[in-house]
Design goal:
Helix content: under 10%
Mean pLDDT: 82
Radius of gyration: 17 Å
Number of strands: 7
Shape: globular
Strand content: over 45%
Number of helices: 1
Length: 140
Amino acid sequence: MSIRNKVQLVGHVGQTPDIKNFGDSGKLARFSLATNESYRSKNGEWIENTIWHNLIGWRFVAERIEKQVQKGTYVMVEGRLVNRDYTDKDNVKRYITEVEVRSFMVLDKKSSNGSKDTVQRVNNTRDFYKAPVDDDGLPF
């Protein structure tokens, strides 16, 4: 049995990605993603819960994030969890968990110019799906 570190999230980007260039060694894109879940409380009321996730993308994934992702973009990301620590300016050791994006897909139905486009794909290893997404014929 193989144990894998794999994360898939679907949500809206919280802010325009922060891009850092490292010269010839590549780029880093850093942004947050909001996912929502709804559930019914014991009282029968619907509760909406938003969870914020920290995401990073390296090299050409970062280049594509820079070109296609902005605040509010609806995306599906696939990656892995990464834990790291750092020392802040007050010399306190901090811990952070991030999702390192390996591939992503923009799920917005409209492009920035307002025309209807097909779903855009971005991937550094393989496509999420083999065929283009066309939901015009779906019953829901």
